[in-house]
Specification:
Blueprint: H1 7-26, H2 32-38, H3 44-72, H4 74-94, H5 98-123, H6 132-160, H7 164-167, H8 169-183, H9 197-220, H10 225-247, H11 255-258, H12 261-291, H13 296-302, H14 305-324, H15 326-347, H16 354-381, H17 389-415, H18 424-447
Helix pairs in contact: 1-5, 1-6, 1-8, 3-4, 3-5, 3-9, 3-17, 4-5, 4-8, 5-17, 6-13, 6-14, 6-16, 9-10, 9-17, 12-15, 12-16, 12-17, 12-18, 14-15, 14-16, 15-16, 15-18, 17-18
Length: about 475
Amino acid sequence: MPPAERPGRVLALVSVAVFMASLDLFIVNVAMPELARDFAGSSLAELSWVLNAYAIVFAALLIPAGRIADRIGRRRAFSGGIALFTLASALCGLAPSVELLVAARVVQAVGAAFLMPTSLALLLPAFAPEKRPVAIGVWAAVGGVAAAAGPPLGGLLTELSWRLVFLVNVPVGIVAVLLAGRVLREARDPSAQRPDLLGTALLVAGVALLSLGLVQAPEWGWGDSRTVAALAVAALALAGFAAHCARSASPVIEPSLLRVRSFALANLSVLLFMTAFAATLLANVLFLTDVWGWSVLHAGVALTPGPLFAAATAVPGGRLAVRYGQRTIAALGCALFAVSAAWAAWRMEAEPVYWSVLLPAWCVGGVGVGFTLAPLSSAAAASLPPARFATGTAVFTTSRQLGAVLGVAILVALLGDPAAGGDPLGAFQEGWWFIAAAAAAAAVVASAIGPVRLAAAPAAPASAPAPAA
């Protein structure tokens, strides 16, 4: 039976890949205290590059990877991405220094960049158009649950060794590579545009320098020449990137995609939401370990209800979006997340108030995650033409990861160095108010998304070889 007639197996396999790539964006958060102890002398700003190096490279390469996948074959690109991701995970687990760990994370991000756009591009043709919103909801929910599950799973693994945070990917990745050839149908688009290397370089430089300026500003000083130079060159690089995309024949981000209202606003909303989400995950872990003095395992277990609520509401959120509209449910999810952050900023204390403050906030935030990511993913992808599934998915996922980069960078700038003394509770309160503002802005943007028209079913690619048995 051809793989396209077994949508459940296709969904299961690509969901595993999405889970792995998304998990590694956030599972490292809970390992940060152990990394600081293992690599003595490294500051929070230096260690934050273990998170942001991955997210920046991942975000910048998603669209070029989607185009390469369209040209060489999506199943081939998917399998190669899993293999590279698995190898890099092993290198991360063996890294003897922060510098080598960051380098291995960059390689890991290259592999992940091929997984995300190809996963949805391989998934959508396996489902009829009317069933795609639910399939997209499951796909998005897996990524959201993986991100939210990072702290509790990371806490359990880090209790044994932080290296297991990376090594756990190896056996899963090997099994996924072996199954890809049996489950997935090959598809390609020989007419797909070539990757935009100049645009990719400008995007990497702009986001990396913006993150550098934000992260190092508390240590260097906001008026220091290094901070000013990093932010100024970042602005020039991002402006150059926008200008290049407007006039290039094969830009990283196609202006025509951004003229689709639902697609453009869903991208902006998810960027703002992920800014809040990524900052929340790191803030909660650091607050529990640095302010309340809890162990990594204790913190991970305490944060477990959040992912459980996200998992429980993700699929219902996708179904509610089909009934009431993506913008309604996504705006509700963003608003719930904003309320959870505002509650934490208002009521959190230096002494543990887990049951009365943190737990309710984290559970409401989990519902917000479940109600947000699936509808926004559906709004972004469902109205795209079949030939743009991979590229459009890459643009949307790029927006998610850029939001994660900004969230971590801005939070680190607000917190400064927790070990330097001062008022840690006040710094975290500022962080939570920032998170609430970002999520509220995401809700406003999501509410402006118009009706979403489902694209027609894609025809079977004429160039695709016979599926594997």
